[in-house]
Amino acid sequence: MAASALPANAIVQAETYYLPPPPRRGQPAQDWSQIPGAELIYKWAEYRLGRRVPVPTATVPDHPGLYARIDDGRWLAECDACRSAWIVSVRDPRFGCVECRRDWVPLIVPADVPAAEAEALALTSRFWWHPEDPRNPNPPLPPEPEPPVEPESEEPQP
User: Fold this and answer.
1) Which residues 6+ apart lie within 8 Å of 117 measured at CB?
2) pTM of the model
3) Are 91 and 46 in contact (CB under 8 A)?
């Protein structure tokens, strides 16, 4: 069985996945360190996929947002318009799709990102879903209802 190419002790985000190409001989290396995390996919798609997709400048109005999830050790979000999934940045919570070229939509990330990552790293398959995500295949169970309290029986007074 081949070993995983993913790091064993970290969850991959856009900042660690979408990296510039190696420098050509005699050329300086490209510096993508000043590009916001959500916009790295556009630079990467240009060099890696040969797609020149403009970075969105607008936001989809009244969009409720997309949930980020950990999928086999990578922070992903899935476009609700075309179903393409891309590695996302939880530090720059915006999602734009290179496939359907949609404008930015809010990215819903957990309030405690390190806790979600620790929970995923404790598993062998490294999957984690936001508890409020309606597409979560294992939603949290609702709290158990309290058992009804039996009223104390009153003894009749003589």
Assistant:
1) 10, 11, 70, 128
2) 0.77
3) no
Burial status of residue 30 (CB atoms within 10 A of its CB: 0-12, 13-18, 19 or more)? middle
**Where does residue 55 rank: exposed (0-12), middle (13-18), buried (19+ CB within 10 A)?**
middle
- List the chain residues with pLDDT less than 50: 1-4
- Cα separation of the two ends of the chain: 83
SS (H, E, C) 69-116: EEECCEEEEECCCCCCEEECCCCCCEECCCCCCCCEEEEECCCCHHHH
Report the greatest alpha carbon distance in the chain.
106
Hunting for tokens 């856009």 — which residue is that? 14
pLDDT for the residue numbered 82: 92
Output the CA–CA distances (angstroms, integers) from residue 4 to 1, 14, 54, 85, in the order listed: 9, 18, 33, 20
* CA-CA-CA-CA torsion sign (92, 96, 98, 99): positive
Q: What are phi and psi of 59, to 5 degrees?
A: -115, 145
